[in-house]
Design brief:
Structural class: alpha/beta
Shape: globular
Number of helices: 9
Distance between the termini: 43 Å
Number of strands: 8
Helix content: 25-40%
Strand order of the largest sheet: 4-2-1-6-7-8
Oligomer: single chain
Amino acid sequence: MQKGPAAVQRLGVFGGAFDPPHGAHVALVEAAIAQLQLDRVQVLPTGQAWHKPRQLSDAADRLAMTRLAFAHVPQVVVDDREILRTGPSYTVDTLHQLRVEYPQAQLYLLLGDDQRRALPAWHQIGEIARIAIICAAGRDMAVRAWNEEPDTPSPSPPFPDILQARICTLDMPLMPHSATDIRVLAATQQALTGLVSPAVERYIHEHHLYRPH
């Protein structure tokens, strides 16, 4: 049984395309729960992502796969608010909503290391850093971003002081998982064993996701 909002003291927030959700996503959340002693993690598939260079898969499919991927983690709540939101989906708007819903909680924004490097370019990043502590996983620099296309540039402007002071690093093994590579494998109906959960793999194949039209 999950705690009510008033009892949640440490709330993780993890957003992404989850197209599809894979093992590194789950490992990051599990590491954050253990290391930050999180009471709950809101996992939020993105809606209309302002920074995505490609069309995402149908939101209903990404939401269903995310629920399957995190079904075994009792602290996780898969939250569909960003999918339901009209217009561009910004992290800062979600954080403002969650701060109202969980007034007693410290918010922890969970990121992959690729996302951390792009942080200075995020919409209202100063406000994000004011609301939440930003916790990012270390990641192999040679591996593409979890939810980005191979040719997507990684902006690296300098971090302002307020951002540096609000960032922590999660200790977790490097996992060379790439959503792009998983989509390529799925397009040719290859096995995804070890990359996504069995339930997500079954969903991908049964719903013919990522196959050429």
